[in-house]
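Example record for the data management plan.
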Amino acid sequence: MNSEKINQIKNLLKTQKKIVVVGHKNPDGDALGSCLGIANYLQQKGHIVQVVMPNDFPSFLKWIPESNSILNFNQHTAEVREVISQADLIFTLDFNALNRTGDLGTLLENAKADFVMIDHHQQPDDYAVVTYSDVSMCSTAEMVFHFMEALEDLEFLNAEISTQLYTGIMTDTGSFRFPATTATTHRVIATLIENGANNAAIHQNVYDTNTPDRLKLLGVALSNLTILTEFKTAFITLSQKELDDHNFKKGDTEGFVNYALSMEGINMAAIFIESEKDNIVKISFRSKGEFSVNEFARTHFNGGGHTNAAGGKSDTALIKTTSDFISILPTYKEALNYVA
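Corresponding structural encoding:
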């Protein structure tokens, strides 16, 4: 952050505030880790803070310190309306447009409080009095660390914050293997470990929680794998029936798309997951090199995200969605084949 934004933040926080910290719909490790981490920090600074999520999050993330204090808008609608109506300040983390919070977005749009955005996604909306946006960052959790650092407040970095931020960084970098993971990221991680983050335990809590149903669902997903060699693209489909047959729980398909991308000669991968409850097909895109799935998702599937990782959705049936996807690929053939 530049000096002007630092001074703005200091002015906003110089007296005690009622603060709400909000993450995006279907919160992942980065949304949870960054929101809980900054809430912990702000509480230590003397503010009254409540973390709000639009809906529930996967069970493999419910061990994160203070995650049981989160208000879920779907389950605690009245309480969320109350805290937002009384808020002096609202921090939004890990998303760049209020519609990324689903039904909660309308409530936020009508809030009287000032907003602070901390986010690393491309093309942020202009709704905050202070926007700390950096698309080069690997995660919003790392940005929270630098936020505290810029305010000269790393003395507040306790074991709980270190664990929360480590979880966010680890999950959003694919355990530190994605290109946005920098030398600075590793220095931040070292500081978090020095301040109480147990890296081995965190990894085990997040990744070593497979159930037989989830592993069998992965088998189904891989059996549904389609490879389009001409376009260096692969995709996976999962129907609602396949999810139901394997007792699908939120978070069970996390990381499945990466199996498709891991194949030699594949530069873009996608997973299409049918959701009868939402009446949509949920889509995750991944890519290698400079091919932007962010732009691809924004242009064709009402989504967005990062250059190499993005999401989208389709209002048509699963078969029609994948057919449309295939029909679009010739337009991108040269770009997909150019990727190193």
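Summary line stored alongside the record: Residues 212-338 form a domain with the Diaminopimelate Epimerase; Chain A, domain 1 fold (CATH 3.10.310.30).
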